[in-house]
UniProtKB/TrEMBL annotation:
Protein name: Sulfatase N-terminal domain-containing protein
Protein family: Belongs to the sulfatase family.
Sulfatase N-terminal domain location: 7-441
Keyword annotations from UniProtKB, A to Z: Calcium, Hydrolase, Metal-binding
Length: 569
């Protein structure tokens, strides 16, 4: 009797994508490939990530909490005051060796493993993809980059890159186990989404006969639509004028579409928009409005092109008759990015604003080109996270509730009806146990490749995918799930969530929400239900201890005060 064919896996990650940006999640941006994927699979409306990018990626590849996997603090923050975190397990700023990474496990169990895209889990070879289980890779190591590979500040010999771009032109990129020179080794027609996809397809097309006989695990983490907002002119033109009525109008349209399509409750009370002290749309000058709406047009074009490239991967897998045997996940790594970035220190003695003034042209006519450098700000981001509260880097639902699409016909054709929307609570930590379950591979437990490793905290989605409906499927039950980065914290058990936002993001006190009836987190029940709040805070304290955390927030804030710095970049 012939053994059943083992499944392939394709994990696609968008960078800073908002909940309602794509058409299957109520957005107006042209994303037909994602829409088709959703109609053939399922959409998760209660899928959760970390509040920022590298912790999410660590959770995805480890199946456990970021504080255990090495991203208890992002490397960009750690590099400000490394002495705070030195010697503290879980705060290394890279994917540590206290976890068994998903590609490592699959590599040891007969899978061909590959990736193309953003890593953001370590900048040196010993913690790069080639050392964490990827047989083949084409990788941007840091957390951001110019989408046209135009990085003049890196090639100016009078400057020394720091913090956001840590390194130089020779160690930002890798192919397999070799560093690439970003100035000379990348194609002249480089555009991030196109180039990442082309390299993934090249890896798959050029497998050896032995590799082709193996099932594959492919990881495609795009850098779109992360800032700087850049896209080809012809794609930007598709969206000309669509956003001229501003972010509040877009937010209203998106919210109506979400309700109409059954993606959020019809009676949802949306959170107020976050402005972060930016000027309201109606008070902007005509020129300011033109630049702001152009930024949103460029953002839409970036999402559009990402979808086009997802279609290229689908077309290839269909051509080799592997599409329907491939478990596909599409997700965002966190909520929409709305921070004001001018003050981020990028080069020694210089802020991002200084770098932009010196090297880039942000005139209206040039926006979107390789030598422009913009972001769209908190008001547009709030349109993308509605009805949820706040944005990326917050542990509110706007920062951690993300779009997720899953397609796998062997299960969805016999279980959940294709096109189904599930409201079951899930997290990014579930991807590893789900993949291993479907691959027929056991997690190694507490020992792997001769070292001690942490067990998984996520849960397999198999029971959910095999169910006829999700009303009775609860994969987390009473399990405690927590979030924290430099004091910005939350904990969830079932429908209950406690939230802590230190100043200036919040009031520095615990809040309590019933997410089943208050998705927008607008009705704080802390004073009405003190016993429930105390129970949830006790759950958080348990999570704090189990995850090996320490009070990094207080120490970090003291260092900021001592240095006379007002922000935690």
């Amino acid at each position: 009797m012939t053994a059943p064919k083992r499944p392939n896996f394709l994990i696609i990650v968008a960078d800073d994508l908002g909940f309602s940006d794509t058409s299957p999640f109520g957005g107006e941006i042209d994303t037909p490939n994602l829409h088709r994927l959703a109609m053939e699979g399922i959409r998760m409306t209660d899928f959760h990530t970390a509040a920022s990018c590298s912790p999410t990626r660590a959770m995805l590849l480890s199946g456990t909490d970021a504080h255990i996997a090495g991203l208890g603090v992002m490397a960009e923050r750690r590099n400000r005051f490394p002495h705070i975190f030195d010697g503290k397990s879980g705060y290394e700023g890279y994917l540590n060796y206290k976890v068994a990474a998903l590609p490592e496990i699959l590599q040891d169990n007969g899978y061909f493993t590959c990736m193309s895209g953003k890593w953001h889990l370590g900048l040196t070879k010993d913690v790069a993809p080639c050392s964490r289980g990827f047989t083949k890779n084409f990788t941007l190591l840091p957390g951001a980059g110019n989408h046209y590979n135009h990085e003049p500040q890196l090639y100016d010999t009078t400057e020394k890159p720091r913090v956001i771009i840590k390194g130089d032109k020779q160690n930002l990129w890798m192919r397999d186990d070799q560093f690439l020179n970003g100035d000379t080794d990348l194609p002249s027609d480089f555009y991030s989404s196109n180039t990442f996809t082309t390299n993934l397809l090249s890896i798959l097309q050029n497998r050896t006969p032995e590799q082709s006989s193996q099932p594959f695990f492919a990881y495609l983490p795009f850098t779109a639509p992360h800032w700087p907002l850049q896209a080809p002119r012809e794609t930007i033109k598709k969206y000309h004028g669509q956003y001229d009525d501003g972010p509040l109008a877009l937010r209203t349209r998106r919210l109506h579409s979400l309700i109409k399509n059954g993606l959020v409750p019809a009676d949802v009370d949306p959170a107020p928009i976050i402005t972060l002290n930016t000027t309201p749309w109606d008070d902007l000058s005509p020129d300011e409005k033109a630049k702001s709406s152009r930024a949103m047009e460029i953002y839409a074009a970036m999402v559009d092109l990402m979808d086009v490239n997802i279609g290229r991967v689908r077309e290839y897998l269909q051509s080799i008759d592997e599409w329907d045997n491939t478990f596909v996940v599409f997700m965002s790594d966190n909520g929409a990015e709305g921070q004001l970035l001018e003050a981020i220190p990028v080069l020694a003695g210089a802020t991002l604003g200084d770098v932009i003034d010196k090297y880039y042209d942000n005139s209206l006519e040039n926006l979107g080109n390789h030598n422009s450098f913009i972001w769209y700000g908190p008001q547009w981001a709030s349109a993308a996270t509605a009805p949820c509260r706040a944005l990326k880097s917050y542990t509110t639902e706007g920062g951690i509730r993300c779009p997720c699409i899953v397609r796998y016909p062997p299960l969805t054709n016999t279980g959940m009806t294709p096109g189904t929307i599930t409201n079951t609570f899930t997290t990014v930590m579930d991807i590893l146990p789900t993949v291993l379950d479907l691959a027929g591979v056991a997690h190694p437990g507490t020992t792997f490749r001769g070292r001690e490793v942490a067990p998984v905290r996520g849960h397999s989605w198999r029971p959910l995918l095999e169910s006829k409906g999700d009303d009775d499927v609860d994969i987390y039950h009473e399990d405690v799930v927590g979030w924290e980065q430099l004091g910005i914290a939350a904990v969830r058990v079932g429908k209950w969530k406690a939230l802590y936002l230190p100043p200036p993001r919040g009031e520095g006190k615990w809040e309590l929400y019933d997410l089943e009836r208050d998705l927008g987190e607008v009705d704080d029940l802390a004073e009405k239900m003190p016993e429930k709040l105390a129970e949830m805070v006790a759950h958080y304290e348990r999570y704090f201890q189990e995850s090996g955390m320490f009070d990094s927030y207080s120490v970090f804030q003291e260092e900021l005060k001592r240095k006379g710095v007002g922000r935690a970049w």
